[in-house]
Specification:
By secondary structure, the chain is α+β, with helices and mostly antiparallel strands. It has one domain. 43% of the residues lie in helices and 31% in strands. The chain contains three helices and three strands. The protein has a three-stranded antiparallel sheet. A hairpin with a 2-residue loop joins strand 2 (21-34) and strand 3. The longest helix has 20 residues, at 97-116. It is globular.
């Protein structure tokens, strides 16, 4: 199994009227042979991020939080999971527990401010 990184143009509804956003998605695939020819079999979509914004702590926190949740859903051995996380870490730097906690506090504060708005 390995990670295949694919670029695509996001045309989500909340981006209507704006130019498409380039995103990069991580897909878990495995190599198989079909009729003697090598092919990649899709196993699972892991997560995606907006190109050019992955250096921001918030983008990395979101990516890793969702990626870890998704990896829990897929039936993997502990060794396979470590290998996949290492492959993801080559492209997206993992966040620390302190960064995750700070991001959580920021998000809670943002939601509190939004709820107080009249």
């Amino acid at each position: 199994m390995f990670i295949r990184w694919l670029k695509y143009r996001s045309v989500a509804l909340w981006h209507q009227g704006e130019p498409p956003i380039t995103r990069v998605k991580a897909v878990l695939v495995e190599s198989v042979r079909i009729n003697g020819k090598p092919r990649q079999r899709h196993i699972a979509f892991i997560e995606s991020y907006q190109e050019g914004k992955i250096d921001q702590i918030s983008a990395r926190c979101n990516f890793w939080r969702r990626a870890r949740e998704r990896l829990k859903e897929i039936k993997l051995t502990a060794q396979q999971r470590r290998q996949i996380e290492a492959m993801l870490a080559q492209r997206v730097k993992p966040t620390t527990a302190l960064q995750d906690a700070a991001f959580d506090r920021e998000m809670k504060e943002m939601w509190r401010r939004l709820q107080r708005r009249p």
